[in-house]
Fold:
Amino acid sequence: MPLVWLRRRSGDHSESGSMSGSDLPLAGVTVVDFSRLFPGNYGTLLLSSLGADVIKVEDTGRGDGIRDMLVFPDQPQSAGHVVLNRGKRSISVDLKSAEGQAVVLKLIGQADVLVDSFRPGVLDRLGLGSEVLATTNPKLVHVSITAFGSTGGYQSRPAHDLNSVGYAGYLTLVKDSEGNATMPRLQNADLSAGMHTALAVLAGLRVVQRDGSGFRADISMAETAASLLPMQLSTVAGTGQSPPSPDFLTGRLACYDLYEAADGGWITVAGLEAKFFVRMCELLGRPELAELQYDPNRQDELRDALAEIFACEPRDHWMDLLAAQDTCVGPALSLTEALEQPHLVERGAVTTAKFSDGKAVDVFRVIPWEQRTDNGDHAPELGEHSEAVLTAIGVTPEQVAELIARGVVRPAP
Structure:
């Protein structure tokens, strides 16, 4: 079917104000987004930041659960929703009704991409199974995100990021001082699944262009998390055993570690190569320490010596002495400090997002190398674009009004 109803034109802006023109890599690509929570929202944020028109399809109740998470005092919306869904559009439809399913099928029929994060079988129960989708849009790129994939014995198990990285082998790689597994500080499975979602969409669009056929990708959070472990797998391949904890990149070597300064700030020392570590030791006035860099029996001695040195002066002192001197030494910034870091700001890695009351907050770009879009500074209210989107796909204003009156569609607040 011709994809003309929401094409970008030069200088044309969506209602969310997210696009800067039709020259963005994914300008003209329409993504219907059924996903919920972190992985899918992150994946479609990547697509939106590349110029795709992402239309979130949410239920007529509370919508995506991310809207109820990270709601801080005196803020009118969830901060998680604002950060993850800026630049997208929202329609609110009752997918359990026949009328709602018909509306969504009409939308899918004129779109390029469908992303969902339902458990296997849910789309079938909603009347949106693979055969229906293939008939509705033979060239559809359809990407599904689940914890364990749509096949195999675990396909129906519920799981979140923590469960997924547990299956992938993450949680035993870094342990505390007593040898216990520790909670990860980053949602590795969620983020990797979101990135693979965007990658699968790009691959699918290429297949459609090349072969004229549709494309299907089955994204597993556990599997995408496992795909991020090539260095650790090198140890398994070489020794037949899991890496020790800590290993040489997670605290075994004193030349690759974190150290606390006198003011409580932290310093990253990453002089794996001898030339960097030698230079640092020279500037610290302790050149003899360089001889201990790789000695497996003297790492505690070296670490204690470095910790004692760095504890004598504040972080800025060490940055002035070491950071620009070919040492691989830098600061361990807080997130608030990172948002104000001059180099990141100068490079354009920091942009803004807005709450519904107009308050702007600093955020990092998710596609930092593509700065012709601001990622959309506005996250949609539930159903904000219901009427505009439905009218654009050929639903008459009278029909839209009837759908709203019947509770099938939730209008803009």
The CA atoms of residues 192 and 347 lie 25 Å apart. The chain has 16 helices and twelve strands.
